[in-house]
Design goal:
Layout lengths: L4 H4 L15 E3 L4 E3 L1 H8 L7 E3 L7 H9 L1 H9 L16 H13 L10 H4 L2 E9 L6 E9 L4 E5 L9 E4 L4 E4 L1 H4 L5 E7 L2 E8 L3 H22 L5 H4 L9 E7 L9 E8 L2 E5 L9 E4 L8 E4 L12 E6 L4 E6 L2 H15 L5 H11 L3
The chain binds zinc ion.
Subcellular location: Cytoplasm
Main location: cytoplasm
Protein name: ArfGAP with dual PH domains 1
């Protein structure tokens, strides 16, 4: 079957451009798919029956369905009421997000019937998640409650406990899928601020739908919080603020403020303007956090280390100059050095918002 891209192919079918030419057609749904999306659809044969676009055995009925539905019409039908806060995955997102999007859209038809959106739209959600313990790294079942009315996500250590073990304010909450780091296909990292320091918890649910529903419930709560905090802001202004992925993570070596302490290998996370380092990637809180401002405010990133530097093992240095001090890092490979510098440059080249000056001031007053 031949198709004309201008007519039949909607690049936003599974939200975000398909990552290749649409070589596949779902005969049951009547849509064109790229290679990446076709792999997802192939694992859901009860929803989607695939055929190569170039397959010579197309029969008239199939051709009629595809030409009569097509991607634009399918989108209008299956995505008629996607909530503004609902996360639309990209081709580069993890498997659970992409698979649950296809299932939500076609299998459960959640975006055709608003009553099916209750698990993430109600403003309240409770249930059990496997949470990684701080001390031994074991995952234990914990009760979680997300309440927009209380403005918080809470979890409880004991079934009958009255007081939550942690109260995470919706205002500073973030959630990002981290299957590789957590070692579970549904692994979710939740961060929040406590006394202006970042805290991490790591959770998962065996059921992909449950985990993605939690993720979207958190996004809904953040959306409604921001609607109140920024009245008059458009949905498009608010949506990027709901959850964020880290700009970069990985190991680097670092030394202390005197630069003579010797270099130690640490796990680094660049979360917007916060550079955090951890002894272990799954630590509950960072050993240190560094604020990375903008070049207008005297923050600079350069490759290499000052000539007198000693005690590093990795050869690819990075120097970050802040108004307070110089930070020296070393990367294992040139590629890592390049990626880290690119991540730092992105924030250094971006002018600071008024709120970010307040965050910077908090960092300066830290002991
Ligand atoms: Zn695609």
């Amino acid at each position: 079957m031949r198709h004309n891209c201008k007519q039949g192919y909607d690049p936003l079918l599974d939200s975000g451009p398909h990552d290749s030419e649409p070589d596949w057609v779902s005969c049951t749904l009547g849509v064109f798919l790229c290679q990446g999306c076709s792999l997802l659809h192939r694992s859901l044969p009860h929803i989607s029956r695939l055929k190569a676009a170039r397959d010579p055995s197309w029969d008239t009925a199939d051709v009629e369905l595809v030409t009569s539905v097509g991607n634009v019409a399918a989108k209008a039908k299956y995505e008629q009421s996607v909530p503004a806060f609902y996360y639309r995955p990209k081709h580069t997102d993890c498997r659970v997000l992409r698979e649950q999007w296809v299932r939500a859209k076609y299998e459960r038809q959640e975006f055709m019937y608003i009553e099916k959106q209750e698990p993430y739209s109600a403003g309240y959600r409770e249930g059990y998640l496997w949470k990684r313990g701080r001390d031994n790294g074991q995952f234990l079942s914990r009760k979680f409650i997300l309440s927009e009315r209380e403005g918080a996500l809470k979890y409880y250590n004991k079934q009958d406990a009255k007081d939550p073990k942690a109260v995470m304010k919706i205002e500073t909450l973030n959630a990002t899928f981290q299957p590789a780091k957590i070692g579970n296909p549904c692994g979710l990292q939740i961060t929040y601020l406590k006394d202006n320091s970042t805290r991490n918890i790591f959770v998962y649910h065996e059921d992909g739908k449950e985990m993605v529903d939690w993720f979207n419930a958190i996004r809904a709560a953040r959306f409604h919080y921001h609607q109140v905090a920024f009245p008059g802001a458009s949905d498009n202004d608010l949506i990027p603020k709901l959850t964020r992925n880290f700009m970069k993570e990985g190991y680097m070596e670092k030394t202390g403020p005197r630069h003579t302490e010797g270099f130690k290998k640490r796990w680094f996370t660049m979360d917007d303007r916060r550079l955090m380092y951890f002894k272990d990637p799954l630590d509950a809180y960072a050993r240190g956090e560094v604020f990375i401002g903008s070049k207008e405010n005297s923050y600079t990133v350069m490759p290499g280390l000052p000539p007198s530097t000693q005690g590093y093992h990795w050869q690819h240095g990075i120097t970050i100059v802040t108004p307070d001090r110089k930070f020296l890092f070393a990367c294992e490979t040139e590629a890592e050095q390049r990626d880290w510098i690119a991540a730092f440059q992105r924030v250094v080249n971006r002018p600071m918002h008024p709120q970010e000056y307040a965050v910077e001031a908090h960092f300066k007053h830290k002991p």
